[in-house]
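4.2 Preliminary Data

To establish feasibility before requesting continued support, the project team ran the inverse folding procedure on a target of 235 residues. The structure was first converted into the token representation described in Section 3, and no sequence information of any kind was made available to the design step. The complete token record follows.
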């Protein structure tokens, strides 16, 4: 069972991996993005306005300040829908009817990537746990990719950010603690980590192999986890 901050198993609460990586400061890229959202919204409203005065301009600017929230919510919904489309496809072998052009583009990006790789899926949308650190998260996909056991994380964001690497590093480490996955893979020794960016505009994939930074990324995640758990003790 999962809540906003925790997963729960056998009566124990586990911190969410994404809650821990979420403590990192993302204000610099976020502020630029939010300002761009505000500018776009304001320009669109001004262009449609029949007449402008101080009151109407003030109203437009006030609405523009909040516009990023709507965009952020819509982007998150699209990301969730793309994940679900890929999950259904991998579970059934059938291409789902994706709701909307951006979801369709994200799903097609996955198909483009799959078409040029030998992919044998072990698990999708799997909740994995690290009892030692008291954390858990949902791993998008564990698969043999071109013969290598690989943790794959799907992203529909405009870019790949460092905290995403730390997230995937912990997922990769947690595979070894999952008895079913260890058995299914003949040992659970993951050798590659991959962030697969599914562009919801172009419909093209961008594959980021982050295997080389795994040892450092895992150390960083666990330092973050140590700080997060001290700041946010579970009652």
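Position-by-position output of the design step:
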């Amino acid at each position: 069972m999962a809540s906003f901050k925790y997963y729960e198993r056998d009566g124990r609460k586990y911190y969410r991996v994404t809650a821990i990586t979420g403590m990192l400061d993302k204000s610099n890229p976020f502020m630029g993005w939010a300002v761009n959202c505000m500018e776009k919204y304001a320009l669109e409203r001004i262009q449609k306005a029949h007449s402008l005065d101080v009151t109407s301009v003030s109203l437009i600017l006030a609405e523009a300040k909040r516009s990023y929230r709507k965009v952020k919510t819509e982007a998150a919904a699209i990301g969730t829908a793309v994940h679900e489309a890929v999950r259904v496809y991998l579970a059934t072998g059938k291409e789902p009817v994706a709701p909307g052009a951006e979801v369709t583009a994200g799903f097609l990006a996955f198909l483009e990537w799959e078409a040029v790789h030998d992919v044998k899926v072990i698990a999708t949308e799997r909740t994995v746990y690290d009892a030692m650190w008291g954390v858990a998260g949902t791993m998008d996909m564990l698969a043999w990719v071109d013969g290598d056991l690989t943790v794959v994380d799907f992203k529909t964001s405009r870019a790949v950010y460092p905290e995403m690497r730390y997230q995937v590093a912990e997922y990769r480490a947690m595979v070894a603690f999952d008895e079913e996955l260890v058995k299914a893979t003949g040992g659970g020794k993951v050798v590659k980590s991959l962030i697969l960016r599914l562009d919801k505009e172009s419909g093209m994939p961008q594959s980021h192999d982050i295997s080389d930074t795994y040892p450092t990324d895992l150390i960083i995640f666990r330092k973050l986890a140590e700080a997060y758990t001290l700041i946010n003790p579970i009652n």
